[in-house]
Amino acid sequence: RENKKLVPFSGDGGNAFGNVSEKSRLQGRHGLCRHQSCHIAIIAKGVFYMALRNILNESDPILHKVCRPVEKFDERLWQLLDDMHETLDKAQGVGLAAPQVGFLRRLFIMSIGDDYTECINPKILEEKGTQECVEGCLSSPGEYGLVNRPQTVKLQAQDRNGKYFIITASALKA
Description:
It contains 2 helices and 10 strands. The longest helix has 17 residues. The chain is globular and about 40 Å long.
């Protein structure tokens, strides 16, 4: 099934695909995989394109499977993360997990204000307090509910290059 829509991206003067080499960009070699649902970057008339991925609906069986850890931190991962950012921005959401765009790996991104966070292979180290929030989910459009969650969370994860970091988040970010 088709899981992408291409949109022009004029971001950072030509390095719109992370650390992809010039030769690789010119040859269009940034595919995530051979499946139809994955993106292959396209360069046409000097315009870089990023993929808007379809967000799966809550009834999709992929969303009910266990994700595997990310093991390779390479151009394919960077492209997925970039596509997820574009998709999240277009959907005007706060967070998006890889399974929501059909990729069964342990990673999510958050966008709160101007703050973007990418968490790969996240592990909750500590939780404190509780809060009750009204939340929605991009995989269940138009539905909202009360959610009980920790007030503060200490989380260990990796960035897009595989480097470990620890973040302490509270309120909506928790």
